[in-house]
Design a protein that fits this description.
2,3-Dihydroxybiphenyl 1,2-Dioxygenase, domain 1, single chain, 4-stranded mixed sheet, 8 strands, 2 domains, alpha/beta
């Protein structure tokens, strides 16, 4: 059976509380797709987030249980969302979230803002554009790889 899913990569966030996730991500425009005892799926357009556990069981997980409970979730991971109405979302949530960086125009010419979710995940929001099919960047890729000694 074919499905209309635009991604083959899914983000699964291990968290201790589903209600906190639902409240926070609904504020960002996500909706609950489905919920089971230990799994929650939320969607906003083509963005799909999966949440696992929703209880203290996350601390007994075979991998995540190795770390102290106060370890910041998502350390060294940035989850990047593309938005059609970036300014509208910013105005709606800026006073309700932990802002890491306000909405600014970045040196590469694109606006974005960065926040932290209630679990410590680092979230970045930028104006929607096609950064995959950028012909100039694609043309420079082989040259950059050679310069850095990277084999493609």
């Amino acid at each position: 059976m074919e499905t209309d899913i635009s991604s083959e990569v899914y983000v699964e966030l291990h968290i201790p509380n589903f209600q906190t996730a639902i409240d926070f991500y609904k504020m960002l425009g996500f909706e609950v797709v489905w919920l089971k005892e230990e799994y929650l799926v939320m969607r906003k357009g083509k963005s799909i987030l999966n949440f696992y556990m929703g209880s203290e069981k996350v601390y007994q997980h075979s991998y995540f249980g190795r770390f102290p409970k106060d370890t910041k979730r998502g350390y060294a991971v940035e989850i990047f969302f593309l938005e059609d109405d970036l300014e509208g979302l910013w105005k709606k949530i800026k006073d309700k979230v932990k802002v890491i960086q306000p909405l600014i125009l970045k040196p590469w010419g694109r606006p974005d803002f960065r926040i932290e979710d209630p679990f410590g995940f680092y979230l970045r929001f930028g104006k929607r554009y096609d950064w995959i099919n950028n012909k100039e960047r694609i043309a420079n890729t082989k040259e950059m790889a050679k310069k850095k000694g990277i084999t493609l």
